[in-house]
Amino acid sequence: MSDISKRYVKALIASVGESDIAEVSATLSKLSAVFRDSKVLTILYANDVAKEQKVEFLSSLIDTKNDKVTNLLKVLASYGRLDSIPSIANELEHQVSNILNKHKGLVLSKDELSEDKISQIAQNLSKKFDTNIELEAVKSDYNGIKVEVETLGVEIAFSTDRLKSQLSEYILKAI
After folding, report:
1. pLDDT tier, 159 (very low <50, low <70, confident <90, very high otherwise)
2. Which of 30, 70, 100, 107 has the greatest number of beta carbons closer than 10 A?
3. Looking only at Cα atoms, what is the longest distance across the chain?
4. Alpha carbon 141 to chain centroid distance?
């Protein structure tokens, strides 16, 4: 994350407080998703569109009643930093996870895992890191199981290919 994003997030958290910060984070996450659309980017980078119109456009996309989000958009527009919204949303999500002590993660696997297995992994990780962790299963090409909790900086992997390789090495050394 850039230092600019961290500064905006710090100011936003201070102005909003812990009570509404989750709502603001969700709103900014929705807004950051629209930055993947090339048509939206064309409008935001257009020189012939006024800053006020850009703010109104973005506000209409998220339909928020929160004045803090609207004021943030105005400030970002005035400094020409509307393109920082995705990094601000990402940093805010990370900070909110730490404040609320709730973290989301992914379980990557080639095979489908049952909900019981996923919840068991989440409970064990929650105990280990003394936090509340929610995990979501994602099918991938990974041959084994990989658990990623980005906001905690945790990645745990068990690869069947690596296990086979280590087992073969052990057998060869034993001979």
Report:
1. confident
2. 107
3. 76
4. 22
Q: Go through the domains of the chain in sequence order and give each one's CATH number.
A: 3-97 (1.10.520.20), 102-174 (3.40.30)
Pick from 111, 85, 100, 115: which is nearest to 151 by CA? 100
Phi/psi of residue 20, each to 5°?
-105, 5
Segment 102-144, tens digit of pLDDT: 899 999 988 888 899 899 999 999 999 999 999 998 888 888 8
Query: Per the structure block, which two tokens stand in for 155?
Result: 């990645």
Report yes or no: 93 and 151 within 8 Å, Cβ to Cβ.
yes
Closest CA to 46 of 104, 63, 38: 38
Q: Is the pTM of this model over 0.85?
A: no
In sequence order, which residues have a C-beta less than 8 Å from that of residue 23 and are 6 or more positions away?
Answer: 66
Residue-wise pLDDT for 49-71, tens only, equals 899 998 888 888 887 777 888 89
Helix or strand (DSSP H, E) at 165: helix 160-174
E strands, 6-126, are 102-109
Name which of 51, 40, 42, 39 is nearest 81 in CA terms. Answer: 51
22 has a pLDDT exceeding 90: no
The amino acid present at 69, given as its one-letter code, is V
